[in-house]
Structure formats: structure tokens, C-alpha cells
Specification:
3 helices, 5 strands, about 170 residues, 5-stranded antiparallel β-sheet, alpha+beta
Length: about 170
């Protein structure tokens, strides 16, 4: 709310007007910040990558809609979905958290189905250089990897044939 300035004159009136101006500027900045937060939250939920935030021990702090669709909402740690005995720290050499990590991994969906994914982890480091946690995303590349394998297999078959190729069904009909 604003201070009534129509009856104020002199130094008090000037202070009241200045206060009102500062108050309006703060309110305007606050509204812009709220709008910006809404836009970021909307983008976070709409993207088709599984996005997550971890604390420094690898516990899941926040996930988006796509992550929950794939892995469910009850996943407590990133290592709960990874195949094998991996921990978040295993991705960073000697505990150096300066760069992002981008690796292919096998993960398990909520329904037990295995996927091949591209896992990207980014350390969240404060101004003092302390590790706060990690931000990351997972991109399902299972179909792409299957297609690559099929192409490699077809190339091998083509290389190993000398005379010709006959394509048959399961009963050896051409």
C-alpha cells in the first residue's frame, strides 16, 4: 500500500513519494520474478526428457512429469534405477565435480523393462566451491540403439555373403 502524499510537503512528502516509488518498483520486480518462476516450472514439466535434481548424496529431491512417467514417483535415489552397482560419485573422477558427465547407461523402468538412456549430470556448486547436489536429465535412446544394432547386423550379413542372399520366413519360404 502507498503512503498518502497529497497533504505532505517538504522533506516528509519527498520521503513518502520516494517510498511509494520504491514500493511500486519492488512490486513490479516481484511480479516479473513470479512470472519467470511460472514459465520455468511450466517448461520443467512439459519437456520430453526425464529431468531430476539430486542432493550431494544422490537422493532424488525433485523430478518432472516425464521422469515420473518412466520411473514412478517412489524412486528415492538415482542409483535405484541404474543397472549395476553405481553411485552418483562414480561418474566423477576423484570427486572433482567441475564438468558435466554424459554417459550411456542401462536403467530399469517402473514396470521392470530395461532401457538404454543417455544420462547427463551437472554438478550444482555454490560460489564457495561447495557441492550442493546435481541436476540431470535422462533421454531414452533404446530405439536408436536397436536401429544401430540392426544396421550393423545387416552390414555384417552383406559382407559375409559371396553369391547372393535369399530372404525366407520361419518355414524357409522365399
Amino acid at each position: 500500500s502507498e503512503i498518502e502524499t497529497s497533504r505532505s510537503s517538504g522533506e516528509i512528502g519527498d520521503l513518502a513519494r520516494e517510498f511509494n516509488e520504491m514500493s511500486r518498483a519492488i512490486k513490479e520486480k516481484e511480479n516479473l520474478l513470479i512470472e519467470s518462476e511460472r514459465n520455468i516450472a511450466s517448461l520443467f514439466e512439459r519437456v520430453e526428457h526425464a529431468i531430476f535434481r539430486l542432493d550431494k548424496e544422490g537422493h532424488i529431491v525433485k523430478t518432472n512429469r516425464k521422469f515420473n512417467e518412466i520411473f514412478g514417483e517412489k524412486v528415492a535415489q538415482l542409483c535405484d534405477i541404474l543397472m549395476g552397482e553405481k553411485r552418483v560419485g562414480d561418474y566423477f573422477e576423484s570427486g572433482v565435480f567441475e564438468n558435466r558427465v554424459k554417459v550411456e547407461e542401462k536403467v530399469v523402468r517402473e514396470d521392470g523393462k530395461e532401457l538404454i538412456v543417455l544420462l547427463s549430470l551437472y554438478p550444482d556448486i555454490d560460489r564457495s566451491g561447495n557441492l550442493n547436489g546435481f541436476d540431470g536429465y535422462i533421454l531414452n535412446i533404446t530405439e536408436r540403439k536397436k536401429a544401430e544394432e540392426n544396421i550393423r547386423l545387416a552390414a555384417k550379413v552383406m559382407e559375409s555373403t559371396l553369391e547372393g542372399i535369399f530372404i525366407t520366413d520361419g518355414e524357409f519360404n522365399i
